[in-house]
Amino acid sequence: MAGRRNGHGERPRIGVLALQGDFREHIQILERLGAEPVEVRRPEDLQGLDGVIIPGGESTAIGNLMVHSGMLDAIRSFFYQGGAVWGTCAGMVLAASATTGPSQPLLGIMSALVERNGFGRQVHSFEADLEVKGFDRPFRGVFIRAPYFEDVGPGVEVLAEIDGRVVAARAGKVLVTAFHPELTDDTRFHEYFLREVCGSDERS
Amino acid sequence: MAENGHITGTFRVKSGMAQMLKGGVIMDVVNAEQAKIAEEAGAVAVMALERVPADIRAQGGVARMSDPEKILEIQEAVTIPVMAKVRIGHFVEAQILEALEVDYVDESEVLTPADERNHINKWDFKVPFVCGATNLGEALRRIGEGAAMIRSKGEAGTGNVVEAVRHMREIVGGIRRLAALGPEELMAEAKALQAPYELVRWVAENGRLPVVLFTAGGIATPADAALMMQLGADGVFVGSGIFKSEDPARRAAAIVKATTHYKDARLLAEVSRGLGAAMVGREMGELSEGERLAARGW
């Protein structure tokens, strides 16, 4: 992995939004994979990045902090200028274009209707093995007060479902997972993000 | 425990929930209106209570789990996680909170202990627990009993951060000392800490607790919150400090920003401006031995 290079022949520089949530876990995995992780707190931190990960956390809290720090607009611009974005759990909520619940700040970079806390309160949080499109063996999903997509728009490719609900999806340069690959030792989603999403020239 | 292929209540799911709260502020609230203020200010969770610790101190008497009616009212009002407190050792209060589907249970010294010898066996529950600690040994005993998150005890309801600082330094300093020991020294150290050997060894190898470490007990200002973060806390509980102050909504938002940007002194100066009066604090010397809540539990 250490030999991976981006289009400029360098290690991919991946930002992790570090306002709140489990951003350190993402950073540790990115380091292991030979990428160059960058903590992102202000709009200027996005300069020169190949991709950004929005970690798990409380989506309303992260959303509010993104508005106050100017990060909501900044990440949206980053995306429309060709940057890759991956949202895990809270990040999946933030990536969506609409929510079934009370209104909250959203990036709206993936055409999808999101159900927050879709599986219920914490006592219903769970682990389950998922069949993921393109993966040759199941991926252990850790779902914590997780969301799911109730509906997705055209151009959104569903990568995994559980109980008929969409829990992983991709549209061009944006990837979402309702579960937390960063809480496991399985690095396949991080590798997929680096290789397929950051590395692609495809626009959504 | 499995429900239709979903494996619930694993330690990864319980401690993972606390991972999602990192860098955030958890606020004590006593009704739906306060819960909404906390959510709008950017709290990552609320602690549903009948009385904040400052009032428990002032009014005295036995402090127990909140009325479920109160908890349900707060659960209805917000979409962020709702936590609630049980007395130390009162596992039936915990069973009730689990049935109410609160997101986290705080086995708390702020309430009057129900068992002076034993804490709750937290492995019995699907709902995760947070427990207070004054030092590393106490933190590891609670984790040994199944706690999925630790917080400093501090001295709740005083608006005085001095005990939270003492406890955080004890815990973080204890971790640092362990990390410097050789493997042959760890059993003696486990004996001295009165902590499970396997956990002592894990901490020595990894240089951190196996669960998230928050701070609590006396945080009243944005500067207090940032101080605790710089001392190594993963996040902050604010009890009486918000709703016992002059302008709770503004102070709550300021403490959230200070917790996020805890190393940015310029921003700390900006958010600390013109917040109105903080809660009136108490000097530790004014407290009698019986008023010291941190001495509850072991």
Strand order of the largest sheet of chain B: 9-8-7-6-5-4-3-10
Helix residue percentage of chain B: 40-55%
Strand runs of chain B, count: 10
Give me the Rg of chain A, rounded.
15 Å
Measured by DSSP, the beta-strand proportion of chain B falls in 5-15%
Order of helices and strands of chain A: EHEEHHEHEEEEEEEEH
Distance between the ends of chain B: 31 Å
Order of adjacent strands in the largest pleated sheet of chain A:
2-1-3-4-12-11-10
In DSSP terms (H or I, runs of 4 or more residues), the helix count of chain A works out at 5
Largest interface: which pair?
Answer: A-B, 40 and 40 residues
> What's the mean pLDDT score of chain B?
95
What are the segments of chain A in which pLDDT stays under 50 over at least 5 consecutive residues?
Answer: none
Describe the secondary structure blueprint for this structure:
The complex is a heterodimer of chains A (204) and B (298).
Chain A (H helix, E strand, L loop, with lengths): L12 E5 L5 H10 L3 E5 L10 E4 L4 H11 L1 H10 L3 E5 L1 H6 E4 L10 E6 L10 E5 L8 E5 L4 E5 L4 E6 L2 E7 L2 E4 L10 H10 L7
Parallel strand pairs in A: 1-2, 1-3, 3-4, 4-12, 5-6
Antiparallel strand pairs in A: 6-9, 7-8, 10-11, 11-12
Chain B lengths: L1 E2 L2 E3 L2 H9 L5 E5 L2 H10 L3 E4 L4 H7 L8 H10 L4 E6 L3 H9 L4 E5 L20 E5 L2 H9 L4 E4 L9 H18 L6 H8 L3 H10 L5 E3 L7 H9 L5 E3 L1 H4 L4 H13 L4 H8 L26
Parallel strand pairs in B: 3-4, 3-10, 4-5, 5-6, 6-7, 7-8, 8-9
Antiparallel strand pairs in B: 1-2
Helix pairs in contact in B: 2-4, 2-12, 7-9, 8-9, 10-12, 12-13
